[in-house]
Specification:
112 residues; five-stranded mixed beta sheet; 2 helices; 5 strands; 22% helix; 34% strand
């Protein structure tokens, strides 16, 4: 009896994630999700009390790519800081995002 293999679109992203975390255990913790589409591997960290600048910079150093930063005002009126890096790592598109209160971000003010 022959079994036809069924492609699993998320397998490449899952393999890349395992390699990323195994080879770089020093990376800060983020919540990961794997999906089909343009950016199949996505890491997110939301923590009002932790500066996300260094978190995203650590991922940018490993993944490559350019860090993008913005500041904005939340619906509750709190000034927030957000940073992200998008890159291709091991042939998989990856985005890592982090958001925190602007008051804990140690970097210079960024464009809103």
């Amino acid at each position: 009896m022959s079994k036809q293999s069924i492609p699993i679109p998320q397998l490449g992203a899952a393999t890349a994630l395992v390699q990323l975390l195994t080879e770089n255990p020093h990376l800060p913790l983020v919540d990961w999700s794997i999906a089909e589409g343009v950016l199949p591997l996505s890491g997110t960290c939301l923590n009002d009390g932790v500066d996300m600048g260094p978190v995203i910079a650590a991922y940018a150093e490993v993944l490559g790519g350019q860090v993008r930063e913005i500041e904005f005002v939340s619906s509750g009126g709190v000034r927030m800081y957000s940073a992200s890096v998008t890159a291709t790592w091991r042939d998989v598109r990856v985005i890592v995002r982090g958001t925190c209160a602007a008051s804990v971000h140690s970097g210079a003010a960024v464009a809103a």
